[in-house]
């Protein structure tokens, strides 16, 4: 998580000290803050005066976050997202992969996505060794594959069908994925116990047109489109 930068140290002779030496008051004159009222009648809180800064959100004097790990997980559980299996080959040619819902687009010029992978895991290590990986976007009935690649089973690739098309970044899961993006690692950024891997999308292979698999509220669910009843046109 982003953290506030610590304040810089002041000069040996602070402003307050210099004021004392010259007989000036050590505190700035009080500036009255005025609240404002919108046209709708809502009262807005007073705004900081000129030269004043808002207090940082991080209020813990020890420097630790005020939000616990469980509290953060509870927050993110309420934000459903698609499910992918990130795959790569290591230098020995062995396939590695892990389920990932921390996936987002970054830019279209060049087409770039971002995945967050656990540090110390073989999938991250393999992706960085060749600077290549594949993102298998899972279809709605691929819950078993999602659970398999999040289980840590060392024989996971023996339990699913996978292939290596020409110029693929990593193994493709044609039975579980509706679309696969082959990516080249452009750069990385470490954050806590994970690494954000930025991948330029080099190729996209679509295996089928179907609904995707979602993960939210700590459970997998297929994407469903509600049937809307349209009123008849008179």
Write up this protein:
With 234 residues, this protein is α+β, with helices and mostly antiparallel strands. It has a domain at 74-218: Electron Transport, Fmn-binding Protein, Chain A (Pnp Oxidase, Chain A), CATH 2.30.110. The chain has helices at residues 15-22, 69-77, 122-130, 143-148, and strands spanning 36-37, 43-44, 81-82, 84-89, 95-100, 103-108, 111-118, 132-138, 177-191, 194-206, 213-216, 219-222. The strands form 3 sheets. The protein has a 7-stranded antiparallel β-sheet. The protein has a 3-stranded antiparallel β-sheet with strand order 3-11-12, with no helix packed on it. A hairpin with a 2-residue loop joins strand 6 (103-108) and strand 7. The chain is globular, with a radius of gyration of 26 Å.
Spell out the blueprint of helices and strands.
Layout: H1 15-22, E1 36-37, E2 43-44, H2 69-77, E3 81-82, E4 84-89, E5 95-100, E6 103-108, E7 111-118, H3 122-130, E8 132-138, H4 143-148, E9 177-191, E10 194-206, E11 213-216, E12 219-222
Antiparallel strand pairs: 1-2, 3-11, 4-5, 4-8, 6-7, 7-10, 8-9, 9-10, 11-12
